[in-house]
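U., I forgot to send this yesterday:
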Amino acid sequence: MSNKLHIVSLGCTKNLVDTEVMMGKLQNFELTDDQGDADVIIVNTCGFIDAAKQESINTVLNLHDARKDDSVLVMAGCLSERYKEELAKDMPEVDIFTGVGDYDKIDELLQEKKSRFSEEVFLIDGAERVVTGSSYHAYIKLSEGCNQTCSFCAIPSFKGKLNSRSLESIAKEVEALVVKGYYDFSFVSQDSSSYLRDRNVKDGLSLLIQRIELIEGVKSARILYLYPSTTSMTLLKNIAKSKIFHNYFDMPIQHINDDMLKMMKRGFGKEQTLELLEYMRSLPNSFIRTSFIVGHPGESEEMFNEMCEFAAEFGFDRMNVFSYSDEETTISHDMKDKIPAKTIDKRAKILGEIASKVTQDSLEREIGKEVDIVIDGESEEHEYLLSAKELIWAPDIDGEIYVNDRTSDEELEFAKIYKAKITGIVGNILTATVYNA
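Result:
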């Protein structure tokens, strides 16, 4: 087999980690951005909601149209797992189908040129990865699957119950990446605050924090995807005490109306959710990211308005807005009182505008602050502007900073942490002066 590889990772950062595992198994291949020149094309798909499913299918079909005759097209990941029988029947364009259990066997599948779906979800444990997108930051997957029963979510139906990695498995991966120069880590899973609960450990994330703090060379860390009902005050206090983990709280609450939270089967009601959020907000230098779903079955205009008012006034730093997607195998799929698509679109637009203002207000609150930033490279705007982010921010999703001045003539280095002052804002991009170069 010839050895040029074109690989596409769709969906979440957890998918990205799995894609990086496949790249680790195919390091004898030469990566190419030209699908027409590739001998092997792999798409790691997302099967979460309708929009993601359609994007995955369109990507596969577009790549098929552009590929050369003797290439191999692989469809991997969540969508392939969720609809294995239907896709095998309806997409003859694909040469190899594989799901969420064989990322570390991709070399074998290519050699055998056959599809495979293992019964167990792949849980990274010692598998080598090729980290992409950064020379200093890496995502670390804590677990697979989920024990929650959220009404709108199909993920447990094809990824199964919670299956946590051991602390030592995670620590070894972080240690190996530190040796390669990585110092900033985002810990991710479907429900990170349930980490190790499947092993009868109630507060596994607190143990994780203690273990990661022992690793010399880790300078910065954050936890993504906290679930309200499994996030304890003890955990939040341990994050606040940590010298490595930022007061970065990514908690998708999905709604704030009490009745809707019950319909969504979120485990916590409004009062308990507010208690967590208000404590997070009280912590120094805290950063709070959340997400909301609009148009869930049974959502009245009054419920939606309550969510909008809360979203606008609480003081979040970032917000994602999702339109309800009616997914088979979910509890909400069988609910009555479905919301018309036009109403969902209208509500998503309204809340989306609130989300944009929330981000803008948060950015403007940064002006005048002295912060740690890390420089990623030259900006796309101008060769004399450097692109950076605040160290606390998660990569790619929280924003960009233009470094347009410095207080010394020393050349600034990419991937290095600097002290800086936020001096202004251009549109939705902050500007900063580095003052300890």
